Amino acid sequence: MGGHEFDVKSTRTVYDGAIITLRVDEVAMPGGRVAEREVVEHFGAVAILARDENGRIAMVRQYRHPIGRRLLELPAGLLDQDGEAPLTAAQRELAEEADLAADTWHVLVDLASSPGFSDEALRLYLAEDLHHLDEAERVDEEADMTVEWLSLDDAVAMVLSGEIVNATSVAGILAASAADRTGIALRDVDAPWTDEPTALRDRRRS
């Protein structure tokens, strides 16, 4: 393991948008060189693999404008509400997107989405012992969103066939399948989240 400290010598903001900020850091490299590194700051997010008593998982089909089509995804949302804990955000998103609540929660997997250029990270929960809620009011893309239920095996098959391509959903589905197969215990909801992003939330707060 290397011992170099990648100290930031200076930083400047290039773009500050609604859900991302782009900054450029000058970083000390091994050997003495200083290099520029572009960093996309992101709120971070949570996602939920909600599984019912029959082993089916709840997925949503939602339009994603950057790629111009609807994707089948696990319910998810940004950590963009000041002071909201990740588990609380996950519970809110599950209610808002799938009209579901859960009595049992575990951490399924933590993801660093694109660590080469962004601090975006996501915590994905397994939610079980489900019960249905009244239908939530939805706007914009979510007004067109539908909920679909799949067996975990069918979801794995759709990942491997290229029908499910959302990276968070791929990771969650395969992680749940691996956990079931191996019997590895999942983490409690208060498990440390080393890479939880805070830069953009701190920037907005200040």
From TrEMBL:
Matching Pfam families: NUDIX
Residue stretches in coiled coil: none
Superkingdom of the organism of origin: Bacteria
Residue ranges annotated for the Nudix hydrolase domain, each copy included: 40-172
Keyword terms of this UniProt record: Hydrolase
InterPro entries: NUDIX_hydrolase-like_dom_sf (IPR015797), NUDIX_hydrolase_dom (IPR000086)
GO cellular component entries: cytosol
Protein name: ADP-ribose pyrophosphatase
